Description:
The chain is built from seven helices and three strands. By secondary structure, the protein is mainly alpha-helical. A three-stranded antiparallel β-sheet has the order 1-3-2, with helices on one face.
Amino acid sequence: MRKSKTDPNYTDGCGRAAAILGVSRQLLLAAKKHGAPGFAGTRVFPEIVRDWLATEAGLAFVADLDDDIDRLKAERLREIVDGLRTKNRRDRGELISRASVFAGFVALAGRWTSIRQRFEAEAPARLAGKEADECRVVCRLLTEEIGAAMHDAGAVFAPLDQPES
């Protein structure tokens, strides 16, 4: 065979072969990857590929490829619909940003840290020389203060219920 672009026995590349065969370049690339005959490096032998596409194996390959394309289109459509649903929920104020939630937790942690630091500073003096029962009372007061701070968490997160602008 001659190495000529006008030689009808082969073409250089799938684009020209696709034009000759009247099929898409993607179909030829997939057929080549599948192991169809008629491909040698970048050369494509359109007659061999045409004959293979006409066989049962070739027809089954094209049908499977069509099924894959339909499946991929359906997946992409689902992704688009999911994205639109998320956007609509965000627009209606039904979703809150991660940054807002994180900021709420940071504020809450700051409150709890200040309570712990205050307790660590006051505890030695408040507990010095006390009996076990008296220490329990002091610890219960601390626990109640932490519980009140947790109850106040609603105030930290309440602004998150407001739609973002």
